[in-house]
Amino acid sequence: MGDVKRSRVVSPLDGGWGWVIVGCCFMVTVCTRAVTRCVSIFFVEFQANFEADYAATAWIHSLVDCTTMLFAPVGSLVANRWSCRVSVMLGGLLASSGLLLSSFSSSLELLYLSMGVLTGVGFALCYTPAIVMVGCYFRRRKALAYGIAMSGSGIGTFVLAPAVQLLIEIYSWRGALLVLSAFVANLIVCGALLRPITVKEDEEEAEGNEGESGGGEKPANVLSHDAELAVKLSKESEDRLLSSGNAAPPQLQKRRRCFSSHFLSSKEYCFLLLPDFLGLAVSFLFLASGCSLPFVYLVPYALSVGVSHQQAAFLMSILGVIDIVGNITFGWLTDRRCLKPYRLTCYIFSVAMEGLCCLFTPLLRSFSLLVPFAVLYGYFDGAYVALIPVVTSDLVGAPYLSSALGIVYFLHAIPYLVSPPIGGWLVDLTRSYTATFFLSGAALLASSLVLTTVAGIRHCRRHQLTSIAKDTKPEPLPLSVSDQSECHITYKKELAVTDTVAS
């Protein structure tokens, strides 16, 4: 037999069905993050109906956020083991069922379970897989694609906030939850449209043999790996299984595949040992402790200073629509060649500006003064939300994006759980929202300070390594013949895949 030349082409990237994926991720963020933000509009109704205080009512919002982030690795696991379609469609069914049951709740405890836990688990199964799929379909315009996809939370907040307030006035809070349940069921449709990337395989025999070509298509699940890595790993596993000229028995081949799967699963989390990622994780803990408080307490604070219900809901709409501007403009700007190396700096700046906005909130005691707060906070919130997947991908690499995002959103869980009740406890204790907004601002500034320190250490380390590299001349590593051939083969595979995707 002559040699066989194989080439794999991943299609399409940076366009085509990728824009459908962006649209689906956009709707997923509308149905998950925007609906979660609008839960605060129900606070006054829950307090009046169940005669509860701020701290007890705040547990509903914190449980939704906490469960969504706590089960984010489960969403990655389900998508990796089965498919993104299965994960998102199952999550949509659970989330819709949770809101449906919440409309019949007779106590806060039942709301904790139905809306807080069941709906949160459904959102978790939808959120991370949809975000990762965008990264699989886009390379050059990744930040812009993420900006458009993540703007769903802002657009959803802009549309849903007044709509939910109107639904509460017409149908009461139970009827409003029933309508939201039907709306969230659209996640099932979004999941059905999330088509995996297709890997095309063409084979051509070398000269001296009969001309023969074969091609086929097979769907590749690339949620935990990008397309190039999926092609490389599948080819390397083929070579290992078919090497030595004799095929192993079917049972032995099955055992080898199982062992390889478990081995690769353990390798997926090797980024946890990176010092830069550990610093990023600490900054996310502070970020999650402060970013949710303004969304929970903006409407109650506005009502406490004499703003009407409609104007308070309109503040959430302003915050949401400016959030869209932050998503798209920061995504477009950080894709430019001049700002691409400074994505981390842009992220740090946006988080720090959010913290400063929160520190000045207690001075704003009218609707006309709260509008600038909603504009600034919404803009920088949209900026940092769009940059979280991009910054994470730049730090750990695209092959580990799915697992890394699962860990990143998992780190948001406990702060999302405890910060709103702590904020409510401060309101009950001080009879003022000042301490709550100060807590939010301090946590956001601490997050930016931690990441600034990490970025500074990283810059100094790079400068030191560059100086050492200039002073020393690299020497070739002593490799055996087999190691050299394996490295050469792997390098050729990576080069071929890179050239094919680039074309």
What features would you describe in this structure?
Mean pLDDT is 74; it is low at 1-12, 199-264 and 477-503. 47% of the residues are buried. The chain is globular. A hairpin with a 7-residue loop joins β2 and β3 (213-219). It is built from 20 helices and three strands. With 503 residues, the protein is mainly alpha-helical. Helices cover 75% and strands 5% of the residues.
Order of helices and strands: EHHHHHHHHHEEHHHHHHHHHHH
Strand order of the largest sheet: 1-2-3
Question: Treating each run of at least 4 consecutive H or I residues as one helix, how many helices?
Answer: 20
How would a textbook summarize the main sheet? 3 strands, antiparallel
Structural class, from helix and strand content? Answer: mainly alpha
Distance, first to last CA: 31 Å
* DSSP strand content: under 5%
Q: Uncertain segments of ≥5 residues (pLDDT<50)?
A: 1-12, 199-264, 477-503
Q: What is the oligomer described by this structure?
A: single chain
Evaluate the radius of gyration: 25 Å
* Fraction of residues in H or I helices: over 70%
Q: Average pLDDT value? A: 74
How many β-strands, per DSSP?
A: 3
Instruction: Label the overall shape.
Output: globular
